[in-house]
Design brief:
alpha+beta; 11 helices; three-stranded antiparallel sheet; about 350 residues; single chain; globular; Hypothetical Oxidoreductase Yiak, Chain: A, domain 1
């Protein structure tokens, strides 16, 4: 598999120019590009620039709308509800983080619901933004309607989305502790990455349409389509359902529903000011100490390593900011074609 690398700044400029040419305001296009490329930098290609052609298709089809940046439609002090107007999640999400932090600073906590939003990308990115400002946060995200991709525990038909959750805690002197997980073994985006790279899916991640275990990404997409499996069996399946209700039903954006052609994402986020409890410095120091204690455990295998949540992203970020963003041949081709269709020249490769 041939791989190309593109400098971070060049890739962001290319993606921003592509979305601007597609009719987005330059400032909006820049934020879309920033968050997509940041996902690649953090090592999560599933939510990175591989989604550029998909996003552009959604915009052409009206699934996502160029323009809306989100509006606070209900304000109840520490609690607020934002209607995204199906604008790009990369800008609506920034409004949600800003509102959550402002309310947590005023009230100690901020609870923010977001409904009717375009794809919000890597959920952990929003938690990282809050942690960078000294706030702890918890996030639940769902995708409403009948277009689920996950089979419930014991089933073989799609019923749920891979509804993720994220938690971030600031650490003293280093990157935050960051838990960013889907309730399926892998998210759909990782299936897309495997398809582009010609790789097999992990064992136990998916089944085909007949309910048989498969490692073939094509069997997931079909036709007829297969399904992703919940992580941890009944635990992941149950957590997925709860997130569906917290992020979808509670915000008014909708949960999984066989009668609804759902679109976009809904989000429920809790922002916490540590100074109203143990204190910001005490929490950050405790997070650092816990991480050090966990990482000091002897590895099971010789030469192995124990990592805390967030270590993976920090290491990928350091590497890719220095060496550029790696892109497989198929993803590179799709990006170049998407840009060419809008008269945007491909970025230089390293």
């Amino acid at each position: 598999m041939t791989e190309r690398r593109v400098a971070v700044a060049d890739l962001k400029c290319f993606v921003a120019a592509t979305f601007a040419q597609a009719g987005n305001q330059p400032a909006v296009a820049e934020r879309i590009a920033h968050h997509l490329v940041e996902s690649n930098i953090a090592g999560h290609e599933s939510h990175g620039v591989i989604r550029v052609p998909l996003y552009l298709g959604w915009q052409r089809d009206g699934v996502v709308v160029a323009g809306p940046r989100g509006t606070v439609v209900r304000d109840a002090g520490a609690v607020a509800l934002i209607d995204g107007g199906f604008g790009y999640g990369q800008v609506v999400g920034e409004l949600a983080v800003s509102e959550g932090i402002d309310r947590a600073r005023t009230y100690g906590v901020g609870l923010i619901g977001v409904k009717h939003c375009g794809h919000l990308g890597r959920l952990g990115g929003w938690a990282e933004m809050a942690a960078a400002r000294g706030f702890a946060s918890v996030h639940f995200l769902n995708s409403p309607g009948k277009a689920g991709q996950v089979a419930p525990f014991g089933g073989r038909e799609r019923r749920l989305a891979p509804n993720p959750m994220a938690i971030a805690i600031p650490q003293s002197g280093r990157h935050p502790l960051l838990l960013d997980i889907t309730t399926s073994v892998i998210p759909e985006g990782k299936v897309r990455v495997a398809l582009n790279k010609g790789l097999a899916l992990p064992e136990g991640a998916a089944i085909d349409a007949a309910g048989r275990p498969t490692r073939d990404a094509r069997a997931f997409y079909g036709p007829p389509p297969g399904a992703l499996l919940p992580t941890g069996g009944h635990k992941g399946s149950g957590l997925c359902m709860m997130i569906d209700l917290l992020a979808g039903a509670l915000t008014g954006g909708g949960a999984s529903d066989p009668h609804v052609d759902g679109r976009g994402n809904n989000l429920l986020s809790l922002y916490i000011d540590p100074d109203r409890l143990a204190g910001r410095e005490a929490l950050a120091a405790a997070a650092r100490d816990l991480s050090d204690w966990v990482n000091s455990a002897a590895p099971i295998t010789a030469g192995g390593e124990v990592q805390s949540p967030g270590d993976y992203e920090a290491r990928r970020r350091a590497e890719r900011e220095a060496l550029g963003v790696p892109l497989d041949t198929e993803t590179w081709r799709q990006l170049v074609d998407a840009g060419a269709a809008l008269a945007v020249a491909a970025p230089a490769t390293l």
